[in-house]
């Protein structure tokens, strides 16, 4: 029972990352009609916002090491720690969550520039052309990251207070030996908050209502005198922010490298297709469902019976679901039927 519960948590944790990326992908496809293969690169850019912020706050100077008395020795001390003492140490310790303050404006800018500079020229072009140009853009971004940050993963520490494990077994009555990393629980809660915020924005705000109407019938909304293209630009920027902050918070779980975007992109597109192209609820549902399936397929007991099953299980599940439900779990008629 303990192993099953841990695998469910692992699946929800991984599914949360899939769901956040797929949510942005679906939001962009549903509003702009764009199949954006550069969305995984936005997840990676968010992760490297955390890396950049951590490098900035840990810029150091050599100072005399008072702990060594036998000879003159020096040590590296961050400027923040020298200037602000304990407050500086707290900022450094919480660099990952604080880097969200850098990621949000940066990802808004990246999303705006991408949509205005490139994406808008492909609104009415075939999906194959959209895939080619956005995939090319993703490769360019990947190579830029590789040139500036190198090819090796860069570990990002979680805050010290959240570096250990929570005794989740005592919470659910399964004993004191069942533990789970605090940061993974934080990421799961954070993902739920972001998903709720996106749905609340679309459902309960006037801006969101216009966007949803534009997703259904862009021409009619335009005839009402509403500048729907400007609103869709904002939606693209919001999707970029969602991917970016998801990448920021995932860095203590998986050290970012320049391959990170591509690794999540392919799986997230599988999630989008399984959930149903253009369905936000389907993307979230499929993200968590496939995350749990992949988690159970990664168990040693399962891999002993079916070697390599963890590498293909998502695609097998996708094939089965699409054979039964050709439009996905919550797909709508008329979406990509051409």
UniProtKB/TrEMBL annotation:
<feature type="transmembrane region" description="Helical">
    <location>
        <begin position="15"/>
        <end position="35"/>
    </location>
</feature>
<feature type="transmembrane region" description="Helical">
    <location>
        <begin position="90"/>
        <end position="110"/>
    </location>
</feature>
<feature type="transmembrane region" description="Helical">
    <location>
        <begin position="232"/>
        <end position="253"/>
    </location>
</feature>
<keyword id="KW-0812">Transmembrane</keyword>
<feature type="transmembrane region" description="Helical">
    <location>
        <begin position="312"/>
        <end position="330"/>
    </location>
</feature>
<dbReference type="GO" id="GO:0005886">
    <property type="term" value="C:plasma membrane"/>
</dbReference>
<dbReference type="InterPro" id="IPR052157">
    <property type="entry name" value="BCAA_transport_permease"/>
</dbReference>
<dbReference type="GO" id="GO:0022857">
    <property type="term" value="F:transmembrane transporter activity"/>
</dbReference>
<dbReference type="GO" id="GO:0006865">
    <property type="term" value="P:amino acid transport"/>
</dbReference>
<keyword id="KW-0472">Membrane</keyword>
<keyword id="KW-1003">Cell membrane</keyword>
<protein>
    <submittedName>
        <fullName>Branched-chain amino acid ABC transporter permease</fullName>
    </submittedName>
</protein>
<keyword id="KW-1133">Transmembrane helix</keyword>
<feature type="transmembrane region" description="Helical">
    <location>
        <begin position="131"/>
        <end position="149"/>
    </location>
</feature>
<dbReference type="InterPro" id="IPR001851">
    <property type="entry name" value="ABC_transp_permease"/>
</dbReference>
<feature type="transmembrane region" description="Helical">
    <location>
        <begin position="265"/>
        <end position="291"/>
    </location>
</feature>
<comment type="similarity">
    <text>Belongs to the binding-protein-dependent transport system permease family. LivHM subfamily.</text>
</comment>
<keyword id="KW-0813">Transport</keyword>
<feature type="transmembrane region" description="Helical">
    <location>
        <begin position="42"/>
        <end position="61"/>
    </location>
</feature>
<dbReference type="Pfam" id="PF02653">
    <property type="entry name" value="BPD_transp_2"/>
</dbReference>
<feature type="transmembrane region" description="Helical">
    <location>
        <begin position="185"/>
        <end position="211"/>
    </location>
</feature>
<keyword id="KW-0029">Amino-acid transport</keyword>
């Amino acid at each position: 029972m303990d192993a099953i519960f841990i695998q469910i948590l692992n699946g929800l944790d991984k599914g949360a990352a899939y769901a956040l990326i797929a949510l942005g992908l679906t939001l962009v496809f549903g509003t702009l009609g764009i199949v954006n293969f550069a969305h995984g690169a936005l997840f990676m850019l968010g992760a490297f916002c955390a890396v950049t912020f951590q490098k900035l706050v840990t810029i150091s100077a050599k100072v005399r090491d008072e702990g060594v008395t036998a000879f003159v020795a020096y040590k590296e001390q961050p400027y923040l720690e020298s200037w602000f003492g304990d407050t500086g140490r707290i900022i450094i310790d919480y660099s990952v969550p604080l880097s969200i303050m850098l990621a949000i404006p940066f990802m808004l800018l990246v999303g705006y520039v991408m949509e205005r500079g490139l994406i808008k020229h492909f609104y009415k072009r075939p999906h194959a052309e959209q895939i080619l140009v956005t995939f090319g853009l993703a490769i360019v971004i990947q190579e830029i990251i590789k040139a500036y940050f190198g090819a090796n993963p860069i570990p990002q520490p979680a805050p010290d207070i959240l570096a250990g494990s929570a005794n989740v077994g005592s919470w659910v009555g399964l004993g004191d030996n069942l533990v789970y990393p605090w940061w993974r629980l934080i990421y799961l809660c954070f993902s739920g908050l972001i998903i709720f915020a996106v749905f609340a924005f679309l459902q309960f705000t006037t801006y969101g209502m216009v966007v949803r109407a534009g997703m259904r019938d862009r021409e009619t909304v335009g005839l009402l005198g509403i500048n729907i293209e400007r609103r869709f630009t904002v939606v693209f920027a919001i999707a970029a922010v969602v991917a970016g902050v998801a990448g920021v918070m995932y860095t203590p779980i998986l050290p970012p490298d320049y391959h990170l975007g591509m690794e999540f992109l392919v799986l997230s597109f599988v999630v989008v297709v399984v959930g149903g192209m253009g369905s936000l609820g389907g993307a979230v549902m499929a993200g968590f469902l496939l995350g749990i399936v992949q988690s159970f397929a990664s168990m040693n007991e399962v891999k002993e019976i079916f070697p390599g099953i963890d590498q293909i299980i998502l695609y097998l599940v996708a094939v089965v679901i699409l054979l039964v439900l050709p439009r996905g779990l919550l797909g709508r008629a008329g979406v990509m039927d051409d």
